[in-house]
Write a structure and sequence with these properties.
The structure is a single chain. The protein is an alpha/beta fold and about 200 residues long. It is about 35% helix and about 20% strand. The chain has helices at about 15, 30-45, 55-65, 95-100, 115-130, 145-155, 190-195, and strands at about 5-10, 50-55, 75, 135-140, 170-175, 180-190. A six-stranded mixed β-sheet has the order 3-2-4-1-5-6.
Length: about 200
């Protein structure tokens, strides 16, 4: 069985301020670094074969923290895991978007990356990883909007009702019985909730 562990990066100042990050390269803040260490401690007790990460520093730093607690686990950068490009909204809060473009700003063409383009990235990455790492446990470290899109395309009937938390762990596994992805764990942050 091929299993993919899906990690959202640690906290940043823009997360704290409610700013859309998109493809802007915003680093982890002090809390995010501590969360990544706690996550690394948790995952060090599990078996993972390889880590793929978005090249954006907030994800890469989280992935490197995880790898530092594991023996002989490579960290591989993959641009397909980068956050969904937010176009003109990057760096803005909801309040600022409403003030600038109105309450219906989501209906405007503000240069956001189209959903079908994100789906193409996801499917290309997942196909390559499942071919290359069949039967293995693969970690991917990415971003909130990207992960929501991943769930939408791989598990279309799964209803994710909570917003993804920083350093959350979600696990999916390929079921050979019905040739579909199954969700085993979603948005788990026990490593920071209990600290």
């Amino acid at each position: 069985m091929t299993r993919i562990g899906i990690i959202r990066h640690g906290s940043t100042e823009w997360n704290k301020e409610g700013r859309a990050q998109g493809s802007s390269d915003i680093p982890l803040n002090e809390s995010g670094v501590a969360e990544a260490r706690q996550l690394a401690n948790r995952l060090s007790k599990e078996q993972w074969d390889v880590i793929y990460t978005s090249p954006l520093s907030r994800a890469r730093t989280t992935a490197e923290a995880i790898a530092s607690e594991m023996n002989d686990v490579d960290v591989l950068l993959d641009d397909r895991l980068r956050e969904v490009n937010g176009g003109l909204i990057e760096g803005t809060t909801e309040e600022e978007r409403v003030a600038k473009w109105g309450a219906d700003w989501r209906e405007l063409d503000l240069g956001l990356e189209p959903k079908d383009q994100v789906f193409t990235r996801i499917l290309s990455f997942v196909q390559e990883v499942t071919d290359k790492h069949a039967g293995q446990n693969v970690l991917l470290v990415s971003h909130g909007s990207f992960i929501r899109h991943l769930f939408e395309v791989l598990l279309p009937t799964y209803k994710a009702e909570t917003r993804l938390k920083n350093t959350s762990v979600s696990n999916i596994a390929w079921s050979d019985v019905d040739d579909t992805w199954q969700c085993e764990l979603y948005n788990c942050t026990v490593h920071v909730d209990n600290s």
